[in-house]
Each structure stands twice: as structure tokens, then as C-alpha cells.
Amino acid sequence: MPEEKPYLEYVDGVVLQKPMPNEEHSQLALEVGYHIRLWLRGRKGRAGVEARAKLGDLPNYRLPDVSFWKGDVPSGDQAPPTLAVEIRSPGQTVAELRRKCEFLRRSGVETCWLVDPVTRTAEVFEGRKKTGTPVTILAAQSLPGFELALSDLFAILDD
User: Could you tell me which residues come within 8 angstroms of residue 96 by beta carbon, excluding any fewer than 6 positions away?
Assistant: First the structure.
């Protein structure tokens, strides 16, 4: 698929246009990515926004809003990210993003964060749980020592 906007995802044999983000979405993605980059200083790994990831056998190509890969994960779009962050865009439902996070987890993503700027809440999909857990602090086993309080994350929207 071409790398052009609007971004496209390839899901179960169907090409889908990724929902158009608004300014809040963009600010939140940048803020999450910034905090991950700060955490990465002196560590191995990499992070990116809207990076294509090949997932599943069909294959499916998805573009998480923010991605993190451990240092031992090969570069390129053939390996799923270690952490995927999904931020709700206008026109998306939380249920839709929960299904996406569940798919990402089944496809090899260790952790998925679902961030909802409308309700200023977040859920973490990680470990053996098949559903998301509401949280007040974003953290992941694959990012030891990383913590981002939702109050700090959403404060960017109040500036």
C-alpha cells in the first residue's frame, strides 16, 4: 500500500481509511511519543508515530498512533511493535478501538494502550487478560520504570 495521506490500513483483505485525527489526537500522540523518547534515553529500542506494522497471517497492516519496539525487535514494518498506542479519533467508538487493541495483542503486540480524549480515560491491554483494564497511569511491563499519569497527559489539552 502506498505511504500517502489519508493513511490506509489493510484489515482482513479490506483497505480501510484510518480515521482523520483532530488537534487533540495529534497533541496526545506527540505527548505520549515524547515521554517514551525521554524514557528511551540510554536504553535500546525505538519509537514512532503512524508506523506500519504487518500483523497476522493474511497479512494485515495496521498503523498504531504511537509504537514502541524493544531493542531486540528487527527494524522494518514486518515485526509488530512491542507497545501500540491507540488514541480515539472523532468518529471512532471505544468499542472499535477495544477490538483493535485485542487484535493487536493476538497478533504479537505485548501491550496496547487505548487513550480516550473524550472521557479522559485510558485502558491497558497486557498480560493474560483478554480485555482492557482502566488505569490512571500508563505503564507497561516492556517499559520498566516508565509511568505517565493521565492527569499529566491530558493537561496538554488544557494549555
Answer: none
